[in-house]
Design goal:
heterodimer; A: 154 residues; mainly alpha; 6 helices; B: 268 residues; 2 domains; three-stranded antiparallel beta sheet; 11 helices
Chain lengths: 154, 268
Amino acid sequence: MFPASEFLPCLYAFVGGIGFCVLFHLRGKEIIFTSLGGAAGWLAYLLALPVVGSEVMAYFVAAVALSVYSEIMARVRKCPVTVYLLIAIFPLVPGAGIYFTMQHAIRGENTLFLTQMMHTLSLSGALALGILLVSSAIRMWQVFRRRTHSNSGR
Amino acid sequence: MTAKDSDPNQGNRPAEEPDGQLLDLAAELGFRLSLAGAEVDRVEESMQRFLRAYGVESGEVFAITNCVMVSLTDKEGRSSTRIRQVPNHGTDLTRLMAYNALSREVAHTAPSLEEVQARMEELAQLPKGYPVPVQLLGSAVGAGAYALFFGGGIRDAVAAGLCGVAVGLCNLILDFLETNQFIRTIVGGAVLTLCALALVNLGVGESLDAVIIGALMLLVPGLIFTNAMRNILTGNLISGPNLVIQALLIATAIALGTGFVLSLAGSF
């Protein structure tokens, strides 16, 4: 269904993640797990894109996927979720969007500039919304657990 | 950072303040978490848990992106407060993990304050990030991989890697000069675009867009926007908009830096 080269960006996202770990002073095994999160996020995006059809929705799905991954890893590895999210989010950060918005601006292509800017903002919004949806759901679940059996809480 | 890690309030603490050390440690923990790049909620929650662990129920904590405050009132109704300003800082995930672990442990076991103090001093000795060559290598790998990610070829990746090293060097110099993030991002964007133009013209890179976008990923406001939305949704209307503006400023700075050089090059 997909040629293998479609999935090469996941590998690039993984390698790029390792580079970013160094910049954020991360050490140890977490480097591998956080970078894998970035690759997983992009894989989710690639798989979701033909299903949902729109780039913004695919971003949302990918954000949910990488957020679920991060929350699980944070509990398994007993680390703050931020550590995983911070690195794993990079493939989905619309850096290209910022660049093309700027390019349209300096070329004086006002309609394209506005379209691209709205698109970039939508992508950022979808990304934030996906992550927040997962973390809010988990928080609600924790409160639910604490309320229902108040003695067995953490 | 070692100087700032040490406690400025020790020695001249008024004698009638029984919870002084507890306050100092809570504020110091919040300060260090903040300095390592922890989100505002995490800082507040850690300080709150810290106070709770030692039986303080009348304590208040408050954190914004560049300040932490802890205040508590003792049984006689005397209140005391610590305010720590958090200077400009990067993100140090190793420290964030270490202080987070310490905070969780203290919340569960509530060891003696002297022990906590000793542990804090121990953690202040953690290495401060990777050596410079490794950091530059990290920038190169990050930029190169993202040039490939955005559809560049191997030669674009090499060019983007070189631009990444330039951005890394630039950041180190501007860090040394204590420049603010806005200027740092503009300069970083301009430098990477200059390098990309030069390398593409020299024939090292092929696609200017892929090279620039790859290196530009070193400057993008990764998780800031998400944290901003998180703060706004949880009703933290001071830190939330603060971070939104920060994210937008960074994005604008990237556009300004790269756009300035590109339009300058376009006019020749």
